[in-house]
């Protein structure tokens, strides 16, 4: 029963907060609505490639065990592909209802086939699995992320309330609710939001430890920090913030700073708790697949130092672009201003200053690490945005106390503009270009109509989940008139980009091919084949109108005022990558 005491205390704390703060329920409700609006987008397809693998991870273990029912098969299943830490456990829990239905309907073989993919192509893997399994499997994993996102908002409320007062907690929670980066990742099954949730929990207990000096709170911080790392290695910043918390508490020790800091047994216990949690959180460690874990470390520390093949830019460009996209221009200015203002207050002797120091050190560590990477995406910067929200909320609360009129005006501007930015992006989930193209094909393609598209991965395509799809990686023009599909779907990345000049970018240079360019241009011009353009979806690339690239400042400004410019922050979704053209056959291909 003692094991349940922490959960009872947590439940009691949540209940007390909801009763004491009449605004908190509405903030959490807003976070829930924004995080879950149109959360079924793209189903039964995937938001990103990573989302597919997070859903498939636990099924790989199931499939391996079914193929060879013995204890050693568990470790073999964990090492089958890339297991991404505790995200596998979360996905396994979310997939239980799908497994139950599969068992009840004798569909277990099809469900297990989700975990057998190394010997088949992406398209075969996607199409042979029933659409309802992908739909409900991915949706349930996304909903788990939605719950974690709402949890992040609440934990930030607790941090702000503990550091200063409930007004500060409300402001921090409201700002995080309208932070677009959080809403993006709540709409995708992955490890970023769960890792952030436990990172924030670790920071909360670190703050409570500084406030009270109770060792147990430090240990809780170590535990949740370990869970954050088990979801995502970047959660290791939690250990740095706990270290700062320990030093700050030592400053208040009656025994003096040196004796308060030198507590070997205390620190060793915290380290042991964190390491044990990490070991248990990584299936590859817990179930004896060290090679897979070593590969995970190698990918984490090695791949980021290599430039991305599609967009080769310096790290500052990636950081700035992803930061502006993730929070929007007004909030980006506010967060930066709040951090600069906080630097003048870190010397103060108060709990709020202690919290500022921990958050700013965390931000500094993240940025120092990212500065050595050759590409940084929006999801990498999610913890930075959350920590800066805490810093900004403390600064704004202080401004409202000292200059009420100015403080209220600044808060109103930031909340309204950020809500508009995040709200516009969230509403756009209901009208994604690829989903619009799929909707057209579902409504107009007949039972025997072939749909031809050119992409290696269905995640990049805009086609229904049907065996009528003829997916060809690479545009093959020579035999097109003999195939004569009813519909052709041209996507930006593997079709339209052939029309870009070689100077457009690395990807355009790689795709340089005169024959393929002529085929795509003939389709779009509607003058060689009996096809007409049935629909264009998404923002048209500038090079189709003969325009060059926009200046750098315009591109950076656009990503901070148009929330759909860079979906998810992944390189494969840089705005125009959603551009899709659907062509419909109007007659026979041969006379």
UniProtKB/TrEMBL annotation:
Sequence ranges assigned to domain Glycosyltransferase RgtA/B/C/D-like in this UniProt record: 141-244
Domain of life per record: Archaea
Organism taxonomic ancestry: Archaea, Methanobacteriati, Methanobacteriota, Stenosarchaea group, Halobacteria
Keyword Cell membrane: yes
One GO molecular-function entry: pentosyltransferase activity
InterPro entries with a match to the protein in the record: LipidA_mod_glycosyltrf_83, RgtA/B/C-like
Source species: Halosimplex pelagicum
Any one cellular-component term (Gene Ontology): plasma membrane
One GO biological process term: lipid biosynthetic process
Name of this protein: Glycosyltransferase family 39 protein
Transmembrane domains' residue ranges: 23-40, 89-112, 132-157, 169-187, 217-245, 266-287, 323-344, 356-375, 381-397, 409-430
Topology class, membrane: Multi-pass membrane protein
Subcellular location: Cell membrane
Protein keywords: Cell membrane, Glycosyltransferase, Membrane, Transferase, Transmembrane, Transmembrane helix
């Amino acid at each position: 029963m003692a094991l349940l005491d922490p959960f009872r205390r947590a439940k009691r704390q949540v209940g007390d907060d909801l009763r004491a703060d009449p605004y908190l329920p509405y903030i959490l409700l807003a976070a829930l609505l924004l995080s879950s609006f149109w959360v079924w987008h793209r189903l039964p397809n995937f938001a990103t490639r990573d989302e597919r693998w997070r859903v498939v991870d636990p099924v790989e273990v199931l499939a391996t065990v079914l193929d060879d029912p013995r204890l050693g098969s568990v470790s073999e299943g964990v090492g089958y592909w890339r297991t991404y830490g505790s995200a596998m456990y979360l996905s396994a829990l979310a997939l239980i209802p799908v497994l139950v239905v599969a068992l009840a309907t004798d569909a277990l073989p099809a469900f297990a086939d989700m975990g057998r993919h190394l010997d088949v192509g992406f398209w075969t893997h996607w199409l042979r699995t029933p659409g309802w399994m992908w739909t409900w499997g991915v949706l349930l994993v996304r909903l788990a992320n939605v719950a974690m996102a709402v949890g992040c908002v609440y934990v930030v409320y607790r941090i702000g309330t503990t550091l200063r007062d409930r007004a500060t907690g409300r402001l921090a929670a409201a700002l995080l609710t309208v932070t677009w980066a959080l809403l993006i990742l709540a709409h995708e099954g992955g490890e970023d939001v769960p890792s952030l949730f436990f990172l924030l929990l670790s920071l909360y207990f670190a703050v409570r430890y500084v406030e009270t000096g109770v060792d147990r709170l430090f240990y809780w911080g170590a535990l949740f920090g370990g869970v954050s790392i088990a979801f995502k290695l970047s959660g290791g910043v939690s250990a740095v913030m706990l270290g700062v918390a320990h030093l700050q508490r030592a400053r208040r020790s009656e025994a003096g700073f040196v004796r308060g800091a030198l507590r070997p047994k205390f620190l060793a216990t915290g380290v042991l708790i964190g390491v044990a949690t990490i070991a248990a959180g990584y299936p590859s460690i817990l179930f004896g697949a060290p090679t897979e874990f070593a590969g995970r470390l190698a990918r984490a520390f090695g791949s980021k130092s290599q430039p991305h093949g599609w967009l080769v830019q310096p790290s500052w460009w990636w950081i700035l672009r992803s930061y502006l996209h993730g929070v929007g221009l007004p909030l980006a200015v506010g967060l930066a201003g709040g951090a600069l203002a906080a630097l003048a207050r870190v010397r103060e002797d108060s709990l709020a200053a202690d919290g500022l120091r921990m958050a700013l050190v965390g931000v500094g560590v993240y940025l120092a690490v990212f500065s050595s990477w050759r590409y940084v995406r929006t999801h990498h910067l999610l913890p930075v945005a959350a920590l800066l929200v805490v810093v900004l909320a403390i600064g704004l609360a202080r401004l409202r106390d000292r200059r009420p009129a100015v403080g209220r005006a600044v808060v109103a501007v930031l909340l309204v503009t950020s809500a508009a930015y995040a709200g516009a992006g969230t509403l756009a989930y209901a009208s994604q270009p690829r989903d619009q193209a799929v909707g057209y094909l579902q409504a107009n393609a007949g039972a025997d109509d072939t749909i031809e598209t050119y992409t290696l991965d269905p995640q990049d395509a805009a086609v229904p989940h049907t065996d009528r799809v003829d997916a060809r990686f690479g545009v093959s023009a020579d035999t097109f008139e003999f195939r004569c599909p009813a519909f052709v779907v041209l996507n930006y990345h593997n079709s339209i980009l052939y029309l870009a000049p070689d100077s457009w970018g690395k990807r355009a240079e790689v795709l340089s091919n005169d024959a393929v360019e002529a085929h795509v241009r003939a389709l779009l011009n509607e003058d060689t084949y009996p096809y007409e353009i049935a629909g264009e979806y998404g923002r048209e690339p500038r090079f189709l109108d003969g325009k060059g690239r926009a200046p750098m400042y315009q591109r950076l400004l656009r990503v901070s005022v148009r929330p759909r410019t860079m979906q998810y922050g992944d390189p494969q979704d840089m705005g125009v990558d959603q551009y899709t053209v659907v062509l419909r056959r109007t007659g026979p291909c041969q006379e």
